[in-house]
Each structure stands twice: as C-alpha cells, then as structure tokens.
Amino acid sequence: MIMAPVVASSIQFIEAALSNGGGSPFGLAYSDPNQRWLIRKDLLSLLQEFPSFSLSIDTFFHNDGTSTKLLVARGSLPISGFSAPAVPVTIWLHENYPTVGPIVFVLADPGCNIHPDHPFVDSSSGLTSTPYLSTWSYPRCSLSDLARNLAKLFSKDHPFWNSQPSSGSAAHPTRASKTEALDRLSGIIHYDITVLRSTVDEEVQDLLGLQEELCARCAATSRIVRELKSERADLKGKVRELEREAGRIYEWQDSLNLEPAFTGSARRDTEDVIDSVFEVDGEKSRLILDCLASERAIEDTIYALDKAIEIGAVRFETYIKQVRVLAREQFQCIDMRMKHHEEITSHGHAPLS
Question: What positions belong to coiled-coil segments (predicted)?
C-alpha cells in the first residue's frame, strides 16, 4: 500500500496520484482526464469537510477475482446524539467513479464487532449498502454528501450497538429530507423483516415438529391397518374352515337320513330325534350318559339358585334346603355313574367319559 508522504499535503498527493492516470508511477485505473478532475474535486471537498480522513492507494479485489489499484479514503465518521464511538470507514473510489458509486466498508475493532442485525452493514465483511449508495447518481451524489449521510445514518443506528430506530422517533416529514426519510424507512423495514423472519422461523420449527408427529401417527396408523388386514385374512381363513366343518356336518346329517323335527303343523319329539343321532354301546353306556346329564342339570340348577339368593328371589332357608336335596341327588348320580364305569371296565369295555 502506498501512503501519502507525511511532509506532502493532501493536495500534492492527489495531484501526484492523478497526474498521468494509468501512466503514473502509481498505476491507477482512472485513465480519463475528465474523470481524474472530478475525482480531484470530490476528494478535496471530502477532506475539507472531514479533515480526519487520509488518502492512500491500494489494490482492490473484485468478486470476479480481478484486481485494480484504486484511491482509498480512510477515516472516522463523528457520531452525534449520544456518547457513541466514531465509526471508522474505508471508501474505495471505483474505477468508473463518479458514474459508479464508491465502495464503503465499516472497519470493526477487535473488541467492538458489528451487530449482526444491522440493516446497512454486513456483520462479517463490513460492506455497507445504504439507500444513498443504492440510488447513487452523479452529479446529484458526491463523496462529502455520502460521508454526511453515513454520519447521520450511524447516529440513528450505530453499527456497533443494536439501537433499533422506532417509527415514532422519525422526524416530521416537513423537517426530514427525502434521503433521511428513505434511510429511516429502510431501517424500520429491515428490523420488521428481521422480527417477521424470527417469527416465521419459530412457526416453521413448530410445523416441522407437527409434521414429525403426523408422520409418526401415519406410521402407527399404517401399522394398525396392516394388522387389521392380517387379522381379516385370518378371520376369512377361519370362516372358510368353519364352512368346511359345517359342510361335513351337513353331509353327516344327510347320511343319517334324519327327518326334520317339524313338518308343517305336525310336531315331533325333538329329544327323540336328537337322541337318535348319538349311538351308545349298550345299556350301561346309556345309563352313564343319563347320569352325566343329570349331574350337569343339577349343577345348572344350583347355579340358578345362587343367582336367585343374590337378588333375594328366594329365602335363605329355602335355598339351603334345596341345595342339600340337589347335592344328595348329584352325589347319588356320581356314585351310580362310577359303579357303571367299573362294571364296563371289568367286562373289557372303555369307560364313557
């Protein structure tokens, strides 16, 4: 970097740097004589109003990778309105200046970083983009006007402090210039967008959580549906099996040549029809079957008496008397059945279970 000699005045440095354009020892990119004259005038105006600025020549690297030597003005912008530190800035004069506006960077101190939500200064690089720079138009715009605009802008919204301007703090439209009103409006819109983005991010996170829950529910529902389909298939298989069993029972019934229990108005003895279906091996087997039927009938009767005593339908004395009688009869049935079993077993027949 080539700095102006300490003994040389700023005017002499500007004259030396812009003397022969691209043919000068400094190798600057400003080749047009009229362009160099306009740059000289704007720089002198800037130094006259902001004497703390110093001039130098340095190499600037564009985003496309190309590099060029440009004039650089470095200095600190005084901040008014509250006890805040001055803002150090670097102003690069583009090779097509003044047709193209300058490139401005805010220099952050190691112990004082640019706050991340500033509307006009990028917190990582310090690149500054204000409405004044975005709407740059020569001859309406100049370096001194830019410096004044930056000083006013940073007084309202300091790059090192998070001091968001409110809409109520804006000056009355008749007392505020168009540029100031545009700056304040841009800042307010930026902070509103920041708040809205934060709210939207929270809503997106909530929706993502809801989506995850819905996906889990969908997976659970799909699993239940698969289980129900499997269960339905099993039930269909059981139905087919029962249908086959019913078919075999119908075939067996047909093979017995049984007449219907009811034919027209003529009623037949249903018990005789049912008894004729089952065959017993001898009189002893029939007696055993009768004993079993009597035992089951007595059990059912005792169960009905239990329910009756629970609801108070019979007196307790009657209940005890009937249960004793039924228990005696059941014991006799069991004893008779066991005797018939022993007789059948002694003759070599399998007992009826």
Answer: none
Any idea what DSSP says for residue 52?
T
* Contact partners, residue 159, CB within 8 Å, separation at least 6: 87, 106, 108, 114, 115, 118, 120, 121
Where are the domains positioned within the chain?
Answer: 2-161, 279-346
The DSSP letter of residue 103 is E
Residue found by looking up tokens 């439209």 in the block: 173
The alpha carbon dihedral of 229, 231, 234, 238 has a sign of negative
- Judged on CB neighbours under 10 Å (0-12, 13-18, 19+), 294 is middle
Tell me the Cα Rg of the chain: 54
- pLDDT, tens digit, for every residue of 47-89? 888 888 888 888 999 888 888 889 999 998 888 766 677 888 9
What lies within 8 Å, CB to CB, of 193 at 6+ separation is none
Question: Which residue has tokens 């003759």?
Answer: 347
Quick: pLDDT tens for 296-348.
Answer: 999 999 999 998 888 888 888 988 999 999 999 989 999 988 988 888 777 65
How do residues 188-213 score in pLDDT, each as one tens digit? 666 667 667 777 888 888 888 889 99
State pLDDT tens for residues 253-280.
787 765 554 444 444 555 555 555 556 6
* DSSP annotation of 135: T
3-state secondary structure of 24: coil
Q: What secondary structure does DSSP assign to 247-270, as a single string? A: HHHHHHHHHTTPPPSEETTEE--H
Residues 6+ apart with CB under 8 A from 103: 60, 91, 92, 94, 127
3-state DSSP helix/strand/coil % of the chain, to nearest 5: 55, 10, 35
| Plot region of 102 (φ>0 → left; ψ -120 to 50 → alpha; else → beta) | beta
Q: Identify which of 74, 68, 80 has the alpha carbon closest to the alpha carbon of residue 107.
A: 74
Q: Count of residues for the chain?
A: 353
